[in-house]
């Protein structure tokens, strides 16, 4: 990996380079996505079946688009029992963590006759998109579904692309069943997002769409936002390791590569105060790359978006970490807890040398659907909050309103909204 002295210019260049990975910079695909969305909106099932045959080579129709109970049972028969056991263990941790996020309605009243409050209501329909293709991510199934279940969503449906035989990956089916999904539809890509957003004869319209996907899925979610809600427009994976001279270079290198193997656009960055550590990590990275299975992808990722930045002190290192606002931030310093208190911007923070990023991906419990591309400055991980909505509650008696009615009328008149003022005044015409 390239080693760079951290300066204002190098920081600005790196930030500019990282932003190139944003889905917002792939406008050449927007026309294709727009056509798919319009076709599905107009022609519903017919368009979905057409695109599934074209892109996935699968002959899907109204009779076989919904995964059957027999298909789920078949999936359980072929997935290793040991993996099912791991999924169930992870599920317990994820559920326990997300239950602590649950919010409840509240009401406050006064003797003067006012009641103010907030009513918390789960969303009614949620669609979860699960990618297919070469990679299978049962962990993402759990992370997207569990907070919706904990929130109390009434209907959770899933869409995922089938293979050319019209089958869904068995591990995906097992994870979905374990998490509590009752309806799984065999459709992927932008056409799946359109079906969830607009509804078809077979697939019901939802209120919110969550889940990762390729650039076509990301752009489709961006396009339907406002018609339905979405979780986020996810960019490529990224990790930033913040380390001092006490860090284990072998651990640091292994963790950087855990994200580089995702895809060629993934970003892996070490920010350290130790030039010696930087050089040792660079050597360890080269050694690991030679034996890892996704060598070609890793090399392209590191060449394009891999950096080792040497800062003059920890204050400068923390400042650049906050500026980059990485999806995953590992802190490997003498006192990681003290450093953590100075971090403002990160999707998930991992403290200490035994809290490596895959722990969060699979097992610890916090959600691994995280803000990317610097959006950790204003976005949070997927949570139970994403599957609820809040309504304000306001109740005033006549006795509570009377002492303040002229104040409200004056405020309304200052905005030249006389009908607003009249709405209050009419209640006190007899005074």
UniProtKB/TrEMBL annotation:
It catalyses: L-histidinol + 2 NAD(+) + H2O = L-histidine + 2 NADH + 3 H(+). Catalyzes the sequential NAD-dependent oxidations of L-histidinol to L-histidinaldehyde and then to L-histidine. Pathway: Amino-acid biosynthesis; L-histidine biosynthesis; L-histidine from 5-phospho-alpha-D-ribose 1-diphosphate: step 9/9. One of its GO terms (cellular component) is cytosol. The active site is at residues 327-328. It comes from Anaeromicropila populeti. Its cofactor is Zn(2+). InterPro entries: Ald_DH/histidinol_DH, Histidinol_DH_CS, Histidinol_DH_monofunct, Hstdl_DH. Binds 1 zinc ion per subunit. NAD(+) binds at residues 129, 191, 214. Keywords: Amino-acid biosynthesis, Histidine biosynthesis, Metal-binding, NAD, Oxidoreductase, Zinc. GO terms for biological process: L-histidine biosynthetic process. Zn(2+) binds at residues 259, 262, 361, 420. This is Histidinol dehydrogenase. GO terms for molecular function: histidinol dehydrogenase activity; NAD binding; zinc ion binding. CDD domains: Histidinol_dh. PROSITE patterns: HISOL_DEHYDROGENASE (PS00611). Its EC number is 1.1.1.23. Belongs to the histidinol dehydrogenase family. The gene is hisD. It comes from the Bacteria. Substrate binds at residues 237, 259, 262, 328, 361, 415, 420.
């Amino acid at each position: 990996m390239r080693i760079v002295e951290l300066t204002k210019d190098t920081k600005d260049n790196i930030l500019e380079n990282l932003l190139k990975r944003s889905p917002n910079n792939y406008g050449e695909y927007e026309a294709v996505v727009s056509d798919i969305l319009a076709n599905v909106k107009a022609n519903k099932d017919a368009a979905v079946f057409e695109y599934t045959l074209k892109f996935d080579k699968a002959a899907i129709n109204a009779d076989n688009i919904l995964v059957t109970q027999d298909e789920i049972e078949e999936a359980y028969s072929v997935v290793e029992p040991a993996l099912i056991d791991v999924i169930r263990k992870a599920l317990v941790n994820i559920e326990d963590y997300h239950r602590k996020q649950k919010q409840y309605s509240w009401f406050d009243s006064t003797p003067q006759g006012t009641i103010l409050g907030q009513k918390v209501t789960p969303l009614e329909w949620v669609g979860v998109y699960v990618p297919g293709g070469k990679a299978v991510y049962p962990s993402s199934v759990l992370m997207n579904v569990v907070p919706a279940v904990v929130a109390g969503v009434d209907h959770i449906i899933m869409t995922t692309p089938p293979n050319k035989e019209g089958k869904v990956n068995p591990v995906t089916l097992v994870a979905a069943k374990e998490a509590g999904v009752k309806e799984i539809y065999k459709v992927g890509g932008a056409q799946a997002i359109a079906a969830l957003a607009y509804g078809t004869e077979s697939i019901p319209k939802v209120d919110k769409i969550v889940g990762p996907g390729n650039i076509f899925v990301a752009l489709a979610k961006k396009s339907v936002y406002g018609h339905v809600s979405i979780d986020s427009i996810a960019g490529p994976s990224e990790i930033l390791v913040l380390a001092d001279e006490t860090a284990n270079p072998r651990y640091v290198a292994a963790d950087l590569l855990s994200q580089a193997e995702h895809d060629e656009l993934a970003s892996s960055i070490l920010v350290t105060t130790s030039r010696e550590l930087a050089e040792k990590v660079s050597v360890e990275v080269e050694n690991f790359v030679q034996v890892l299975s996704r060598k070609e992808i890793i090399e392209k990722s590191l060449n394009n978006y891999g950096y080792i930045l040497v800062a003059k002190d920890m204050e400068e290192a923390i400042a650049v970490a906050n500026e980059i606002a990485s999806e995953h931030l590992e802190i490997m310093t003498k006192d990681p807890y003290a450093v953590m208190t100075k971090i403002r911007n990160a999707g998930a923070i991992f403290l200490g040398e035994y809290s490596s990023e895959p722990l969060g991906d699979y097992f610890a419990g916090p959600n691994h659907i995280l803000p990317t591309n610097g959006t950790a400055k204003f976005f949070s991980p997927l949570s139970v909050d994403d599957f609820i909505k809040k309504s304000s509650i306001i109740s005033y008696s006549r006795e509570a309103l009377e002492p303040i009615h002229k104040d409200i009328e004056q405020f309304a008149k200052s905005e030249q909204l006389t009908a607003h003022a009249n709405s209050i005044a009419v209640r006190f015409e007899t005074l």
